[in-house]
Amino acid sequence: MRRCVPWFRLMCGGTSLLRDGFDAHAAPPTGSPSFKQVVEEKIDKESKALKRIVCYPHRFMTRPVLPVPTSQILSPPFMSSLMELNVLATDLHCLSFSAPKAHWDAAVILIKGSLDETEYEAWVNPSVPGYDDRNAVAPMYGMWENCISCGTATAWVVRPQRITCSGYDEHGNQKVQALDGMRARCLMHELDHLMGKSIFHQAMGPEFVVSSVAMAQRHLWPANFPSAEAYVTIPGQFFDYVQNKTLVPPGMEWWYAQNTRQEFGSERIGH
């Protein structure tokens, strides 16, 4: 998601370096780049990567992609494209990524469950039973999602808390897994792109899509806009429709603590 999600991409150069114990004030070892040089290099790398991203409504973002023939999964062209996709997602610090965002007409998704994970999990030709069934009777999470391919827009999107996905890994092995939390949301977010959809299609209505500037001015919104649950849920949180409260996705605690000013706390609607 990003599911590439812009807030999650705040984990860029300086932030991740400080988290790993980089002392910005210490003199760099002889021959080693300074903290400033390292950060500038990472920012430059991200800037170049952004220029390669497909943005909605590019044709790759508005039509279903082609499934990958299983006989081609281990082919040199496929492996080369997959490697480039991994590099691009890494340079952009994304939690998830999909082939259409990189001008690749293929049903391929990369996901992580948290920012601590260093490797992406690859899904080729992923399939989720009941995908896009808005009448499904299942526990749901609501969340403010944004996307690197959708500019500064942020949309309130409701998705299942847990899904079962079938597909292939990067070695051509068939797999079936149950995913929950951020991993499930990231996969569903990217699956939308494989189907030619985006957060604009999954939002509950036009009032559930706002700009990043508007998100920064949430304290000026009318009460319970655009809905009670969306109003009390800040970026980076889930709203649990079963427990009727907000929560921080497991694995995102450190990011949440460092990058979020909690305005509403863990509130319950109706209390």
From TrEMBL:
Role of this protein: Removes the formyl group from the N-terminal Met of newly synthesized proteins.
GO molecular function: metal ion binding; peptide deformylase activity
Family designation: Belongs to the polypeptide deformylase family.
Record's GO cellular component terms: mitochondrion
Listed EC numbers: 3.5.1.88
Keyword Protein biosynthesis: yes
One GO biological process term: translation
Name under which the protein is recorded: Peptide deformylase
Alphabetic keyword roster: Hydrolase, Metal-binding, Protein biosynthesis
